Amino acid sequence: MASGTALIYDEKMATHKLLWSDPICDIEVPERLSSSYEQLKSYHLVERCVPVPAREGSEEEILLVHSLEHLEVAKSTQTMNEEELKRVSENYDAFFFHPSTYHCARLAVGATLQLVDAVMSGEVRNGMALVRPPGHHSQRNAANGFCLFNNVAIAAEYAKLKYGLQRILIVDWDVHHGQGIQYIFEEDPSVLYFSWHRYEHQEFWPSLKESDYDAVGLGKGKGFNINLPWNKVGMGNSDYLAAFFHVLLPMAFEFDPELVIVSSGYDSGIGDPEGQMNATPEVFAHLTHFLMQLANGKLCVILEGGYHLKSLGESVCMTVKTLLGDPVPQITGEMAPCLSAVESIQNVRAAHKPYWKWLAYEDTSFLQNLSTKSHLLKKANSNTSTEHETKITNNNNTVKVERFLELHMKNILFPVPPIKTATIGSEGSEHFLSEHVQLVKEMDKTEIKSLVSGFYADLVEEDKILLSLGSMLAILDKILKKEVCNGIAASPTAALSAAVALRHSVRFGFQRVLCVFVGDMQITPNTEDGKMLIINICEKEQPGKTSCKHCISLNWKEDAEGNDFFSAVLGFILPVAYSYQPNLTVIAVGPNRSLGISGISLLVALLQGLAESRIVAVIEHPVVLSTTVSLCDL
Ligand SMILES: NCCCNCCCCCS
Ligand SMILES: [Zn+2]
User: Fold this and answer.
1) Ligand 1 center from residue 301 Cα (angstroms)
2) What are residue 227's phi and psi, to 5 degrees?
3) Which ranges form a coiled coil (predicted)?
4) E strand spans, 3-142
5) 421-632: which CATH number, 3.30.1060.10, 3.40.50.1820, 3.30.420.240, 3.40.800.20?
6) Helices 339-352 and 370-380 sit at what angle, rounded to 10 degrees?
7) Residue nearest ligand 1's atom 11 by CA
8) How far is CA 273 from the centre of its chain?
9) Burial of residue 389, with CB atoms counted within 10 A of its CB: 0-12 exposed, 13-18 middle, 19 or more buried
């Protein structure tokens, strides 16, 4: 798998700007680009990326999506005076031309395509392009919503043409519906388009009926257009994670894309005047981390919206940090999605049931739209608040959010978590392991005996077991002391090693330790104090084993496709694990495991979103190396 993260930025894209007063467009300012880039520099992230130059998209590339007429109109604006520019701009909904707009828009297209080439050629694994004007609202024959050329749509058509791709996933986490992208691909089954957006029952711009959850695509494209409408503002981290666990990720894993492109708008983040949502910047690290598990990590992140400069900058940095493989910051706070979000999630799943295997058993009771009913009642006797008021509240809100983010991000970013993996290397294993891996020397027997004597001493009769416990504990200690991020140890008895690891971590002072055990777990440590949560994925019901509050067993038999595994992990294990908010995760693979190596590697990768990626993996021999690779793939 390729390595390295591309960053594409060209300050010339900051020349496009509004020349007259227009309260609708005045938020799309050049500083969006420059302050994001400055923020990346301040976190020393620019120097860790592979710089890839922007270029002008060619007319031919633009014509992959747009009409010749649209191209000609855009080209003609270069020589216009302000009066003419204003007049042409008025032909569109929420768009403004500047003499440099056409050039900037071609740079935005070219930067996007440069990123696609860098990823598809293997020069880098993934990357981000900081571009403006954005693209996802623009249509074949029209500019719209600050967008002139549809950068992401052109990138998808370009990738299909140049690399013969047949399955491209576009994830649009911008807070507005990228109707432009929907129109371009709604009959195309080779492009899966997912968008969530502020909708408020069609009250919020662009106020389209076709932005609702029942717009599933047309003709051959049915099932390949996914709209998740947010019918209330204030959606937060838990709502966004729930949308990924229960809608996007199961579909994405079933679709199995060859390339993932993100229409990465950050107006869905806290403080943004357009979105009015509450999700904090670190949520974008989790969303990015999840998408990195698809398409062999081939991920192109393209900037769309984002109008609160501080929130935008922090979210861009969270995205790039994760693309670089850094540990994912812990998400804190409420983990249950709100009712309105659950309704929307349930409705889009019901609408897509006919088109997806993973939804085959879905009970399609369209939730009585409780929020809709109350909304319609409210509308009956509502007094509309003037646009002007909201503008004023926005301004002092901006300052408040800036202060909140200063504090919030400081707790998240410091101390800098290590990004190394520890393992006990058998001779020569260092050749297999990436430069991130640290070999740990074994612990001596007396020390092990003293550590283990407290419990399970009777179980440890052979030296072999004692030694394996020693190596696991040596690795675990480094993780507990936060000298390394994660580690992996082989063990002849995974259940015993896991039990010792759990007990040792709790005794070390960790308050919440998650254990995901794959296979028959002969020993179940008592979790009565809630300091441990055990999820056991086992093939058959264990005789006499009762599920207690903190010990859940998931009976599992990997079937042919194995994609049910994804919806079990994504729809059950991850939501439970995220709501537990562990400080450490123990992953153990025991005898007659019911998962293949790819399933285990995916599980390890997805669980890296927890506990700042602190994981200790205890594996019974044969799968050790492949799991090591996925661990130190950070
Ligand atoms: N009342 C009209 C509001 C128009 N708002 C356009 C927002 C475009 C966002 C692009 S990400
Ligand atoms: Zn937007």
Assistant:
1) 21
2) -110, 125
3) none
4) 5-9, 50-51, 126-130
5) 3.40.800.20
6) 120
7) 305
8) 23
9) exposed
Residue ranges with CB less than 5 Å from ion ligand 2:
174, 176, 265, 267, 305
Among 274, 308, 387, the mutation site with the greatest number of ligand 1 atoms within 8 A of its Cβ is 274
> What residues of the chain score a pLDDT lower than 50?
560, 634
- Predicted ipTM of the assembly: 0.99
- 546, exposed or middle or buried, with CB in 10 Å at 0-12, 13-18, 19+? exposed
Overall size of the chain counted in residues: 634
Same fold, 35-50+126-327+339-413 and 421-632: yes
Ligand 1 atom with the shortest distance to the CA of 176: 11
For atom 8 of ligand 1, the residue with the nearest CA is: 145
Cα 480 from Cα 501, distance rounded (Å): 11
Instruction: Give the distance from CA 514 to its chain's centroid.
Output: 21
Q: Which of 305, 27, 345, 316 is nearest to 174 (CA)?
A: 305
The predicted structure's pLDDT at residue 246: 95
Under CATH, domain 35-50+126-327+339-413 is a member of which superfamily? Histone deacetylase domain (3.40.800.20)
> Would you state the pLDDT for residue 104?
99
CA-nearest residue for atom 9, ligand 1, is: 145
Q: Which residues line the pocket of ligand 1, CB cutoff 6 A? A: 24, 94, 134, 137, 145-146, 174, 176, 205, 265, 267, 274, 304-305
Ligand 2 centroid to Cα of residue 266, in Å, is 7
pLDDT at 314: 98
Active site residue 98: no
CA separation (Å) from 25 to 21, 64, 93, 196, 236?
8, 27, 10, 22, 26
> Over the stretch 222-238, which tens digit does the pLDDT of each residue have?
999 999 999 999 999 99
| Domain layout of the chain by residue ranges | 35-50+126-327+339-413, 421-632
* Ligand 1 pocket mutation, candidates 27, 137, 175, criterion most atoms within 8 A of CB: 137
Q: How far apart (Å, rounded) are the C-alpha atoms in residues 523 and 497?
A: 10
How far, in Å, CA of 495 to CA of 123, rounded?
42
Ligand nearest to the Cα of 180, by number? 1
